[in-house]
Structures are given as structure tokens and as C-alpha cells.
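sry for the spam today, last one i promise. C-alpha cells for design, 461 residues
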């Protein structure tokens, strides 16, 4: 179509040239003139028609340049080229990414040659057909814009390829990172296994420890009579009435045991002296360091107080239930602060032996048959009721317990005061310490005193 236009333009130009040199002959002048006019008219008409047709049949150029946009979320296409006629071309990134570069180059080349030829036509047409010229210039401009867009498209494509390359690199980096993480994970798994193993080791050593502790505990429990407080049964299966029963069952170690006197079936704890003079002694009183106050009232002396393994008073009630179940002897071990020791022993001992209600009767003392090294300081108290600071059962017009700071079977006061103050040996006050007058007088408070009872040997025979 463009070439056709080109030929027609040339022929019109030749016709224009030939009309100049046919004016010599006058007779044929009018004829030539008419002919020329007709030819020119024809040429103008043909040219106009062709131009009109050209304009009319011109390729349906788009109203604007093709639209090129990158998609952000619309389908999978990365780039969409929207043509003037409304159709779209979507460009996808394919994993294999086919090379469209050449196609773009060819498109560009076609556009460029088209532009050149149009520009040539444009220069030829200048000055002849202003309207067509404008039209063609517009066409050329649009083609130029299209070409620019095409090269833009190519650049986009190239950058997309580069992007793909970058994406590949990123992918490699990610894969490397993943590998590193997997390695870290496996390392931490190894560490976790180590931790679990060490915890297991700790647990098994703990179990071993527990086992050995159990064994030690078992052994301790078997040796428990030395310091334990378990009820102890006799060899013949009955419960021990006192420490002599426990001794008879084979126990030979000093310590705290539970005993069950006949008239005290619930039993109580007592310290058993299993070593002194044949053992089997039930301790009813001990002084050794002054750690316990012995200046107490009736209830305390009736029920007992102190620490079985240390200073204590077993209790008048307990002494009564023991001494009424058999004939008991009493031994009193004494020691001064020069480590001298002495003892007093009585073949008969009991409290409230004949009382219907020993508590109401005041636990009167029965004592007889002295022997020993400390001298007798108790026989004068025979038959006396017990007196405490709050219960005056003595023969004095005062309360001997209050006066001599103790509690005892006072008569018109005492020849012994083993529940007196712990005064640490010699003292200037009179008879208010731990006194055994037949051995150390009335102004020497003993370091150690222990009263203990057991059934008399006649009884056990
Ligand atoms: C059990 O033995 C003790 C001495 O250990 C004895 O006094 C008591 O009578 C015995 N009891 C019986 C039921 O044999
Ligand atoms: C008494 O015996 C104890 C140990 O039993 C000792 O430490 C102390 O020095 C002795 N005292 C005297 C006066 O011998
Ligand atoms: Ca009195």
C-alpha cells in the first residue's frame, strides 16, 4: 500500500513536468491545455482517492501505544502487554525461561525499518499534502513510541532474566542456610543425647545412693535399741514391764526403750542402764549439767519432765506403776566435780506401795536395806510423802521444797536433796543444791546424780 502510494506520487510528478513545454503550437494549445487540465484533474482525483483510501484503510492503529505493565497479583503473568485492540499478551516466568531476546530484537528491527521508510515517505510528502503529512507524522511518532515500548519490554525481559539469576543465587544461599541449620539441628540432637545420658547416669547413681542409704537405714534400725524408742518385745513374746525385762531379752546397750508396766498398759519411754552392776536398771532421775530446771510443781513431778537421754524426772506416777508390780531395789550413782564417784543402794524401794490413790496420798516413800559407798542419806525419809513447791506434804511448818529449792520426800526437811539447784560443787547457801549429806555435806552440789530401779534379784530367781 505504501509502495503503491510512492509510485503514484512519482507519476504525478512526471506529469507535472511534461505540462511545461507544450505551449509553442497555438492550434494545439487549447487541446493540450484541456488535456493537461484533464490529466491534472485526474491525477489530483486519483491521488486524493488513493490518499483517502490509504487513510481509510490504514492499519487500525491503536488509539494509543500498547500498554505494558507488570502484574502484581493478577494471575501468574509477570508482564502483560495490552494491545490497542484490547487483546493482551501475558509474559510468564517459566522455570526454563525461554529466550525471547531474539524475538524482541527482530521486533525492534521491524519497527526500526518501518520507522525509516515512513520517515523517508514523510520527507517526500512534505510540502505537498499537509494533512497526510500530519497523519503520517503522527503514525511515525506512534511507531516510535511503540519502538520505545518494545525496547522497554526488552529491558524488562533482561532485568527479569537477571532477577531470575538473582533468585537462583538467593535460592542457593537459602539452601546453604538450610544445610547449616540441619547440621546445627543434628549437632544439638547429639548434645541432647549427651545431656540425656548424663541425666541417666546421675539418676542411676542416685538410685545406688538411695539403695545404700536404705541399707544403712536398715542396719541402723536393727541396731535401733541403742538409741531408738521402739516398743521392745521380750524373747518369750510378752511386752517388757521394765528395763530388766529388756535386759533379760538380751539387750545390753544403754539407751531409751519403751516399757509397759502391768498397771500402765499404754507404756512410756525410759532410759535403761544396761551396764552398771549387772544392768537392767530403769532410770527414774538424772542430773548432769543443769540444763533442766528441777524447781517445778506437783503436776510436773507427777507426770515427769526433762529429756530421757539427759536430765529428767521420770514421774511419780510411772515410778509408782513400776514399783507396785514387784519388789524393787534402788541404786543412786553420784559424782562430784573431781570425778569422784559413789553410790548408795537400797534393797527395798517403792512409792505409794500401800496407797489406794497414790496421787492423793502423795506417793509416800518406802526405803530399806542400804548398801554402798556414798553412805545412807535417804533412810530418814522413809514413809514421807512427796512435797513440791506447790504441794506441802512435809513435817516442817514451812514448805521444804520452796525453802530448799527442790522437790523430795521431805520430813522436817532433808538429809538428801537430789532435785535441788544445780550449783556446781561448793556453794555458800545452805542445803539448796544437789546434796547427799552423808557423802559431801549440805553445801556441795554434785555434778552428777542418777536414780535407777530394778526388781530385786530374789524376785527374778
Ligand atoms: C516373759 O519373760 C519375762 C522375763 O523376761 C517374764 O517375767 C515373764 O513372766 C514371761 N512371760 C511369760 C508369759 O512367760
Ligand atoms: C573429769 O573427767 C573428764 C573426762 O571424763 C575430764 O575431762 C576432766 O578433766 C576430769 N576432771 C578432773 C578434775 O579430773
Ligand atoms: Ca510444811
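last one done:
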Amino acid at each position: 500500500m505504501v509502495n503503491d502510494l510512492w509510485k503514484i506520487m512519482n507519476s504525478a510528478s512526471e506529469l507535472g513536468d511534461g505540462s511545461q513545454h507544450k505551449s509553442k503550437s497555438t492550434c494545439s494549445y487549447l487541446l493540450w491545455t484541456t488535456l493537461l487540465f484533464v490529466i491534472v484533474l485526474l491525477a489530483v482525483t486519483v491521488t486524493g482517492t488513493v490518499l483517502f483510501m490509504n487513510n481509510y484503510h490504514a492499519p487500525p492503529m491503536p488509539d494509543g501505544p500498547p500498554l505494558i505493565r507488570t502484574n502484581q497479583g493478577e494471575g501468574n503473568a509477570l508482564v502483560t502487554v495490552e494491545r490497542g485492540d484490547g487483546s493482551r499478551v501475558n509474559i510468564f516466568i517459566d522455570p526454563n525461561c525461554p529466550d525471547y531476546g531474539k524475538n524482541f530484537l527482530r521486533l525492534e528491527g521491524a519497527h526500526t525499518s518501518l520507522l525509516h521508510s515512513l520517515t523517508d515517505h514523510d520527507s517526500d510528502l512534505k510540502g505537498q499534502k499537509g494533512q497526510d503529512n500530519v497523519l503520517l507524522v503522527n503514525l511515525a511518532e506512534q511507531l516510535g513510541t511503540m519502538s520505545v515500548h518494545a525496547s522497554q519490554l526488552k529491558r524488562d525481559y533482561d532485568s527479569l532474566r537477571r532477577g531470575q539469576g538473582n533468585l537462583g543465587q538467593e535460592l542457593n544461599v537459602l539452601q546453604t542456610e538450610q544445610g547449616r541449620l540441619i547440621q546445627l539441628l543434628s549437632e544439638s540432637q547429639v548434645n541432647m543425647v549427651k545431656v540425656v545420658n548424663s541425666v541417666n547416669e546421675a539418676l542411676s547413681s542416685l538410685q545406688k545412693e538411695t539403695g545404700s542409704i536404705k541399707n544403712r537405714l536398715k542396719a541402723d534400725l536393727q541396731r535401733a535399741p541403742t538409741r531408738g524408742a521402739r516398743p521392745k518385745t521380750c524373747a518369750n513374746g510378752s511386752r517388757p514391764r521394765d528395763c530388766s525385762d529388756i535386759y533379760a531379752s538380751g539387750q545390753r546397750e544403754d539407751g531409751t526403750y519403751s516399757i509397759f508396766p502391768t498397771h500402765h498398759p499404754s507404756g512410756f519411754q525410759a532410759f535403761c542402764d544396761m551396764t552398771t552392776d549387772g544392768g537392767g536398771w530403769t532410770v527414774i532421775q538424772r542430773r548432769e549439767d543443769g540444763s533442766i530446771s528441777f524447781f517445778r510443781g506437783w503436776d510436773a513431778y507427777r507426770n515427769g519432765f526433762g529429756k530421757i537421754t539427759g536430765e529428767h524426772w521420770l514421774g511419780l506416777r510411772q515410778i509408782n506403776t513400776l514399783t507396785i508390780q514387784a519388789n524393787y531395789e534402788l541404786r543412786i550413782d553420784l559424782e562430784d566435780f573431781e570425778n569422784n564417784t559413789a553410790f548408795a543402794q537400797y534393797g527395798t524401794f517403792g512409792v505409794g506401795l500401800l496407797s489406794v490413790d497414790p496421787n492423793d496420798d502423795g506417793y509416800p516413800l518406802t526405803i530399806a536395806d542400804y548398801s554402798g559407798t556414798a553412805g545412807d542419806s535417804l533412810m530418814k525419809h522413809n514413809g514421807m510423802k512427796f512435797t513440791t513447791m506447790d504441794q506441802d506434804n512435809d513435817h516442817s511448818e514451812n514448805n521444804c521444797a520452796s525453802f530448799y529449792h527442790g522437790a523430795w520426800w521431805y520430813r522436817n526437811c532433808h538429809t538428801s536433796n537430789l532435785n535441788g539447784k544445780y550449783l556446781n560443787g561448793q556453794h555458800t547457801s545452805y542445803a539448796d543444791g544437789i546434796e547427799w549429806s552423808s557423802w559431801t555435806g549440805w553445801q556441795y552440789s554434785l555434778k552428777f546424780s542418777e536414780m535407777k530401779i530394778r526388781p530385786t534379784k530374789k524376785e527374778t530367781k
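Residues 392, 394, 396-399 surround calcium ion (ligand 3) (CB under 6 Å). ok im logging off now
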